[in-house]
Design goal:
heterotetramer; A: alpha/beta; TIM Barrel; eight-stranded parallel sheet; four-stranded antiparallel sheet; 14 strands; 30% helix; B: alpha/beta; Elongation Factor Tu (Ef-tu), domain 3; Rossmann fold; 2 domains; seven-stranded antiparallel sheet; seven-stranded mixed sheet; 5 helices; 35% strand; globular; binds flavin-adenine dinucleotide; binds flavin mononucleotide; binds FE2/S2 (inorganic) cluster
Chain lengths: 304, 255, 304, 255
């Protein structure tokens, strides 16, 4: 068996590079009857906000060629209920627990983190900066380097935990965002979040999701994710967690070669509940065949 | 309990135009599934990602039966399956019809008949009368209804069999003649369910509806199949795949 | 038969909304034995530069899930040879001829246009602004509103022909680019050009195209195109030509509903040489069934 | 002339492990195609977009024959085709081997045999000797070679039949014993073609190579299959689908 451990920092070591992507695996304990969550290196929770959010009206998902659109709208139970209901399960989880945090202004992010900070079972925060910033006229935190930098700095002052910033691909140059996050103290970057997408039903003339434009995910976006990771990997010193369209073990290897130290499985959890075990199998066979002893020999090793 | 497994098609036959009956072994659930529950079928390939949900139309020993209509790309592929074809399924999913100890009225629109076939078979074991209202576009679009227990009333849009018109109108006309108390269990197109929902509010009868919504997971993890609850203060959000697909009419706001 | 005419300006009327996308149909006369170019409303040529360009080294195409990557690198014969070899065919073409123009600096664009301006058979220019601007440190013209605005202004001063600016989706907010083009005199906008994408071969560890990151096109990018068009349509007054992942008639209707007055067929020309005729068939059936007499009843009619 | 048409599979049979012979009617081109030319096969579905190019391995009346190897997703699908299957094809594409009036040496590596089978059949009609060097991984990977005219020499990587080693080495060893002048026509993996190219430069023999490159269109419109020309000043860029797939060794730079 290949050693699948992957080190993102001195203290932050995953037993394997597979994480669940936020919003695609609930809070971690919803499908334990079907998939053993211990197969994953860690769980990234759904985005948690200060207060409960209902999310957007239906329809909020649609299938498109090799992908899906969603406008779930960060529906979640809010930080208090999250702790009340999920702490027991997550505190006993043996992989890493990464809580994804979202807010409509800086203050909301900080308040959520303050409520979580004392919990030892939380290893890291992943900050979702794709949410429109209400104080800044709706520009997402992740689309303006200055706004992003300031948010990261404030979060950094607030926490000693491993701090991951999850970037949106919907920008002219993701490297500028990546550098702003790094400069202000981020420990790692997750990329990518969903791509802006839309679809219209030609019979009803209605948009297929109620918000008209939503988040596009699934195999179709993989080339976009790989491009963004390759670009960013050359510019930053902090580790990258790769996300976007992963559906099998070959995809995971591709992300590692592009420079990701860990990856997240999103939409694939929906269309293949067996995806995690299949990926682990594939990686094992691939590494045996190629005589690769540890993931380090793959990460960033694309000959670009 | 939910199981994700590979199994093989035992039988897949056309019942009437575009409607097929699929049978496969699924012993892990065949003894415990309840009417109203559904299963997901998973497809290889990356073009259409979502698994497809289908109501359980019946069980027979270790076998699960699905009655499905060819409406798009993946049901087209299903229609070509031969016995022996490997398939991936997950079930049983969702809640179930809440079977009441009283007279039952089953109202099916089109392929909405599927879960009601299974329900009918269960109700047969109770000793209460059953009335089935079966709506279809046409007389040649009435699969398997003759196996149902109780009294059956047909309504067809083109009048080629039974009542000429939609099944809700047909039911409405008989409504006063049905002795109370009774419970209505219904499944069919959205417009039909809305019409019934309004009728139930007006005529105050017990109504359970099996809904359909596009599903990405069927497991309660994507939140994609959410619908608003009639009393949002109590239940801000209901998931059709998990809290449903069967809802009591008073949980819904379909006007 | 439905009237398929579509009017982009008082003088610029297409007999039907289907155009070829630049770089996917040569100069128009390469496959006349297989596809009658008169089926199209017009032909958009390959990007033409001042001097011939060889393009990038191989491999320069790769297949990805529901799409392709290309790094052709604007290979073309240059404006002089273009006129020498293609004028006869294009001057006799009965649809509209739209010449796509590219340059590495403002001057190159202007020079190409000066060489073309006298030709009556050219109805319009489509300006490809996705090329890195050598004078501005390689930022593409299409990624900076000021640089774009100035280019458009100069082009506008140079030509009386219909001036179309083809925008790249690889920006934070395409509306800002669209408005800059409109303000400086553009007659129409084409969107979208290809999306940044990349793929790595997990056996050779080499990128699947030689430039590592290339242009991603095909059905996978359709939701991105629709989203960008919906956004832009609300902001601008000039017509939009929709491009991105069209593979059949239903896709064309979707683009029209989103707000496109015409569309371009790109990658589909490769995987389905019968695409144009199939689309025309579909539109005709769709319009008959829905009792739509003219395209105007579809354009921008999505209920968003 | 090029034709894009729907036709049906007449025959599709396994010849040896993973290698299949496909036959379909294509009367528009069957009389005019030349060895070296290829056809595109188009597939429905949107996951893998590019048509797949295959050399013409032979003609028989109105029929075109394709010899193909199952290497990936779409050749896997092809291998399941039954007689009667509808398929979309486009051809004939590309240039042809330039048949010289002298002794011919055909060198095939693996499935590179396909165009050489057709070439061999044409050369048979000329009155010059033919020598066929056929390379394969193993003796059970040698499809249809026994139908070839002339003298045939086998080379297998595992030594299970004929010369043990690669087919270029095998040819090199016989090179001096082949009476000059002769022309070599070759098709096979890139490494084999490079080795032959170097050999031709060293030993000065006439060599034509049939190349493979990933193609998006096969029609000369995408510019995706471009390769550098040996004399870039004359021909900055050659398209394998249009200027090839057959190139004279001195047009190429394969060192
Ligand atoms: C709980 C539930 C039970 C169902 N039971 C049955 C049944 O017993 N028999 C039957 O014939 N049909 C049933 N359906 C509908 C069935 O799932 C769709 O007909 C099927 O998914 C269509 O797939 P397609 O690829 O052929 O069609 P597509 O061309 O993809 O879509 C056609 C229509 O099918 C529906 N649909 C598509 N994808 C999904 C999805 N992932 N989830 C839900 N609906 C979708 C949409 O309304 C869509 O417009 C049920 C749906 C649900 C939600
Ligand atoms: C001019 C020409 C003639 C050919 N003749 C034959 C032949 O006679 N018999 C035969 O078995 N094979 C032939 N090939 C190769 C054949 O096209 C590939 O094996 C086939 O495309 C693989 O498709 P796939 O989906 O099964 O494999 P994939 O899994 O998609 O790819 C496997 C490999 O096939 C090649 N390939 C894939 N797509 C293309 C494409 N669009 N164009 C070219 N190569 C591609 C690549 O090298 C790729 O790595 C020829 C190729 C060319 C260019
Ligand atoms: C239904 C759904 C819900 C999502 N919810 C969240 C979320 O709450 N927070 C977040 O940061 N990302 C969310 N995402 C984005 C994913 O975490 C991931 O970045 C994206 O889907 C790309 O990965 P994939 O292609 O593997 O799905 C969601 C994605 C989907 C499909
Ligand atoms: C092989 C290839 C070459 C292209 N060359 C050009 C070009 O020279 N100029 C240009 O403006 N766009 C070029 N494009 C972009 C297309 O015109 C179009 O904008 C893009 O492919 C999206 O449309 P599609 O998904 O229908 O292909 C090219 C695209 C492809 C696939
Ligand atoms: S379908 Fe995913 S939560 Fe219901
Ligand atoms: S494959 Fe398109 S030009 Fe050769």
């Amino acid at each position: 068996m290949t050693d699948l451990k992957t080190q993102l920092s001195e203290d932050f070591i995953l037993r394997n590079p597979l994480l669940t992507a936020s919003g695609t695996y609930g809070y971690g304990n919803e499908i334990t009857d079907l998939v053993d969550p211990e197969l994953y290196g860690g769980i990234v929770t759904k985005s948690i906000s200060l207060n409960p959010r209902i999310g957007n009206p239906p329809p909020r998902i649609a299938e498109v060629t090799s992908g899906m659109l969603n406008s779930i709208g960060l529906a979640n139970v809010g930080v208090a209920q999250f702790l009340a209901e999920k702490e027991e399960f997550l505190a006993n989880y043996r992989g890493k627990v990464i809580v994804n945090v979202v807010g409509s202004d800086e203050d909301e992010y900080l308040q959520v983190i303050r409520k979580l900070e004392s919990r030892q079972w939380i290893s890291a925060y992943e900050i979702n900066v794709s949410c429109p910033n209400v104080r800044q006229g709706g520009i997402a935190f992740g689309q303006d380097a200055q706004i992003l930098g300031r948010l990261v700095q404030k979060l950094r002052n607030e926490t000693g935990k491993f701090l991951i910033i999850k970037l949106t691909p919907n920008v002219t140059d993701i490297r500028i965002m990546a550098l702003a996050a790094q400069k202000n103290g981020a420990d790692a970057l997750s990329l990518i979040n969903t791509v802006y997408g839309s679809a219209i039903d030609i019979n009803t003339r209605r948009p297929k999701i109620s918000t008209v434009i939503g988040g596009f995910s699934g195999p179709a976006i993989k080339p976009i994710a790989i491009a963004q990771i390759l670009k960013t990997y050359k510019e930053v010193d902090i580790p990258i967690i790769g996300i976007g369209g992963i559906s099998d073990g070959a995809d995971v290897i591709e992300f590692l070669l592009a420079g990701a130290r860990a990856v997240q499985i999103g939409t694939a959890n929906f269309y293949n509940p067996g995806v995690c075990i299949e990926i682990l199998d594939f990686i094992d066979k691939y590494c045996m065949e190629k005589k690769i002893n540890c993931l380090q020999d793959l990460i960033g090793q694309a000959e670009v | 309990m939910r199981y994700f497994k590979d199994t093989t098609v035992l039988n897949n036959q056309m019942i009437c135009t575009d409607v097929y009956l699929l049978e496969f072994a699924f012993p892990e659930i065949s003894n415990s599934v309840e009417p109203g529950q559904f299963i997901n079928i998973y497809f290889p390939g990356k073009t259409q990602l979502f698994p497809r949900p289908f109501s359980i139309a019946g069980v027979d020993g270790e076998k699960i039966k699905i009655l499905y209509k060819k409406v798009g790309c993946l049901t087209e592929i299903m229609s070509q399956w031969q016995s022996g074809q490997n398939i991936r399924v997950l079930g049983a999913l969702g809640n179930q019809f809440d079977i009441r100890n009283q007279q039952s009225v089953l109202i099916a629109g089109g392929i909405g008949l599927a879960p009601l076939l299974f329900l009918n078979a269960r109700l047969e074991k109770l000793n209460y009368p059953i009335i089935n209202f079966i709506g279809a576009l046409s007389g040649n679009q009435l699969p398997l209804f003759n196996s149902m227990s109780g009294k059956t009333i047909i309504a067809t849009d083109d009048g080629s069999q039974g009542y000429c018109g939609n099944v809700v109108d047909c039911f409405r006309q008989k409504l006063d003649s049905i002795s109370r108390p009774f419970s209505v269990y219904a499944c069919g197109p959205d417009a039909m369910l809305s019409a019934l929902w309004r009728l139930a509010r007006e005529h105050k009868f017990d109504l359970q509806l099996s809904l359909e919504k596009i599903m990405a997971c069927g497991l309660g993890i994507c939140q994609g199949c959410a619908i608003p609850h009639a009393k949002p203060a109590d239940h801000p959000l209901r998931l059709v795949c998990q809290d449903g697909p069967v809802f009591n009419a008073n949980e819904l706001e379909l006007s």
